[in-house]
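testing teh design pipeline on a random one, pls ignore if ur not involved
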C-alpha cells in the first residue's frame, strides 16, 4: 500500500471528518510517509517539535522501502527495524507501538498519532495526547470544614494519581477496560490485592465486560449495570467525589470503578449505612461524629414518617393528640377544602416542583426563586385558605430532613410518598405495616455478598464500632465483616506486641 491509498482509505474510514489531519513526509517530490491524527485530541506543538521535525529531517535514512514480497506486518523484522530507526531519530518519545491498520485506526480515534510508511502493512503509533482538564478543587457536593479539599475531576489519569498518592503500595491495582461501542470510554477497576475479595473483583469485571451499549458519558451510566437487583429503587452502588473517601473504602476491601469523563467514582459493595457516614466524621471528635450520624438518621426518619404520621393522626387517630394541640389543629384546618391526605400530597408536590426549579435555575436566580416560592407563595396559599399552616410546617421539616442524607434524596422522596399513601388508606396501621415490609426487604438484600442492612441485620458486633455510633479509630483494629474482604487485621494493637 502506498501513501495515497492509505490516506484515501483512512479518510473514508473516518467518513471524511473535518478534524482528521494528514501530514505527509516527502523525500524529494514524492511522499514516503504520512502522519495521521485527530486535531482536537493531539498536542500539535509537541508533535511538531518532538516527532514531525526529527522525522522529516532524517526521512531519507528512515524510510527505506522493503524488498518486494518482504513481510511488513506488525510482528515482522522489517517493522521492528523501522521502529528502532524511529526511536533513535526522535528527540523525545515515550515509545513507538507497532499495530495493524485496523487497530491503529482505533487508537487514532482515541487521540494517538499514527505514522504510515510506504510499503508497510502496519502503523507506528505515538502518544501525544492533549489533555484538557480543570484544576483539582474541592467538590461542590462534598464540602468539608476539616480534612483534604481535593476532589476528582473528569480526567481518569488524574483521578488514579489522586488515589495513588494516598495508597503508595505496589498492591494497589488498576485494571484498564474500555466500555461503549462508539464512545470506547476508558474505565479503570481499582482494588488492593490481598485486601479486596477476588470474587467481588471478578464479579465487577464480568459485569463491566458484559456491558454492550453505544456509549458511556459518565460513571452514573455504569451504575445500573453493576446493581444486583435491577428493579429496586434503593441505591446499590456507592459513589464519591473525594479521593480520601475512596482510598479509605479501598483500604477496607472495596472495589472502585473510575470512568473517564466523570468526577464521580463508584464503589462496591455498598451498604445502606455508608450514606449515614461522612468524610468529615473521621476528622472531627468521635462524640461529635456520632451525634451527627444520629441526626442524619433522625432526619431521614423525619422525612419519611412525619408527613404520613401527620395525615394518619389527623384523619384516623386524632384522639391520640393532646386536647390543646387538637384544638389548635382544628382551628387551622377547619376552612381547608381538601382532606388531609390530598392537602399533604399537594404541598409535597409544590415543594418538589420548587426544589426542582431552584436546582435548574442559574445560581443567581435560584435564591430569589426560593424566597418567592417558600415565603410569598406559601404564605399566600395559607392566607387564601388552600392549605393550612401545619401542613406547610410538616412539609418544610420533612424537606429539611431529606438533605441530611443528600445521597438518598431520590429514595427518601419515593418512600415518603409511599408512606403517605399507606397512612391515607390505613392510618398508623398502614404506616407500621409498610415500615415492617420495608425493613424486612432491606434486611433480605444481598449486595455482592454483603447484607445491605449490615451491621444491624444481621448484627455484627465488631462492625458496630463504625456504625451509627462511632468509636475511636484506635479501637477499629479489624476490617469490616459486613462485606467480603481479606486480611482482616487493619492495625496492630498494643496487646499484640
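output:
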Amino acid at each position: 500500500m502506498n501513501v495515497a491509498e492509505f490516506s484515501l482509505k483512512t479518510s473514508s474510514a473516518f467518513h471524511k471528518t473535518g478534524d482528521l489531519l494528514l501530514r505527509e513526509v516527502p523525500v524529494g517530490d514524492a511522499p514516503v510517509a504520512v502522519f495521521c491524527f485527530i486535531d482536537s485530541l493531539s498536542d500539535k506543538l509537541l508533535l511538531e517539535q518532538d516527532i514531525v521535525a526529527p522525522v522529516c529531517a532524517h526521512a531519507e535514512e528512515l524510510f527505506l522501502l522493503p524488498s518486494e514480497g518482504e513481510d511488513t506486518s506488525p510482528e515482522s523484522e522489517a517493522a521492528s527495524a523501522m521502529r528502532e530507526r524511529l526511536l533513535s531519530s526522535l528527540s523525545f518519545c515515550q515509545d513507538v507501538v507497532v499495530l495493524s491498520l485496523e487497530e491503529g485506526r482505533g487508537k487514532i480515534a482515541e487521540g494517538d498519532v499514527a505514522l504510515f510508511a510506504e510499503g508497510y502493512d502496519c502503523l507506528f503509533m505515538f502518544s501525544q495526547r492533549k489533555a484538557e482538564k480543570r484544576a483539582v478543587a474541592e467538590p461542590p457536593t462534598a464540602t468539608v470544614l476539616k480534612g483534604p479539599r481535593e476532589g476528582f475531576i473528569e480526567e481518569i489519569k488524574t483521578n488514579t494519581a489522586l488515589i495513588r498518592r494516598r495508597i503508595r503500595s505496589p498492591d494497589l491495582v488498576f485494571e484498564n477496560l474500555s466500555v461503549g461501542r462508539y464512545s470506547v470510554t476508558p474505565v479503570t477497576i481499582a482494588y488492593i490485592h490481598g485486601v479486596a475479595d477476588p470474587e467481588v473483583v471478578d464479579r465487577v469485571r464480568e459485569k463491566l465486560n458484559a456491558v454492550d451499549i453505544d456509549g458511556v458519558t459518565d460513571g452514573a451510566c455504569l451504575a445500573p449495570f453493576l446493581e444486583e437487583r435491577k428493579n429496586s429503587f434503593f441505591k446499590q452502588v456507592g459513589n464519591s467525589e473525594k479521593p480520601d473517601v475512596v482510598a479509605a473504602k479501598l483500604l477496607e476491601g472495596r472495589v472502585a470503578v473510575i470512568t473517564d469523563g466523570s468526577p464521580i467514582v463508584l464503589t462496591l459493595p455498598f451498604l445502606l449505612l455508608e450514606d449515614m457516614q461522612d468524610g468529615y466524621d473521621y476528622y472531627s471528635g468521635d462524640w461529635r461524629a456520632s451525634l451527627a450520624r444520629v441526626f442524619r438518621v433522625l432526619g431521614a426518619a423525619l422525612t419519611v414518617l412525619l408527613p404520613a404520621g401527620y395525615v394518619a393522626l389527623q384523619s384516623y387517630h386524632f384522639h391520640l393528640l393532646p386536647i390543646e394541640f387538637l384544638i389548635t389543629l382544628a382551628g387551622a384546618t377547619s376552612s381547608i377544602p381538601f382532606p388531609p391526605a390530598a392537602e399533604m400530597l399537594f404541598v409535597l408536590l409544590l415543594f418538589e416542583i420548587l426544589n426542582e426549579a431552584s436546582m435548574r435555575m442559574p445560581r443567581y436566580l435560584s435564591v430569589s426563586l426560593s424566597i418567592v416560592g417558600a415565603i410569598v407563595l406559601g404564605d399566600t396559599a395559607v392566607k387564601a385558605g388552600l392549605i393550612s399552616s401545619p401542613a406547610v410546617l410538616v412539609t418544610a421539616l420533612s424537606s429539611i430532613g431529606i438533605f441530611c442524607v443528600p445521597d438518598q434524596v431520590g429514595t427518601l422522596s419515593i418512600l415518603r410518598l409511599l408512606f403517605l399513601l399507606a397512612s391515607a388508606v390505613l392510618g398508623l396501621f398502614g404506616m407500621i405495616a409498610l415500615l415492617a415490609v420495608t425493613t424486612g426487604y432491606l434486611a433480605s438484600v444481598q449486595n455482592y455478598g454483603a447484607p445491605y442492612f449490615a451491621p444491624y441485620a444481621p448484627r455484627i458486633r465488631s462492625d458496630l464500632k463504625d456504625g451509627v455510633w462511632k468509636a475511636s479509630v484506635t479501637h477499629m483494629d479489624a476490617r469490616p465483616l459486613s462485606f467480603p474482604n481479606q486480611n482482616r487485621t487493619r492495625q496492630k494493637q498494643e496487646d499484640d506486641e
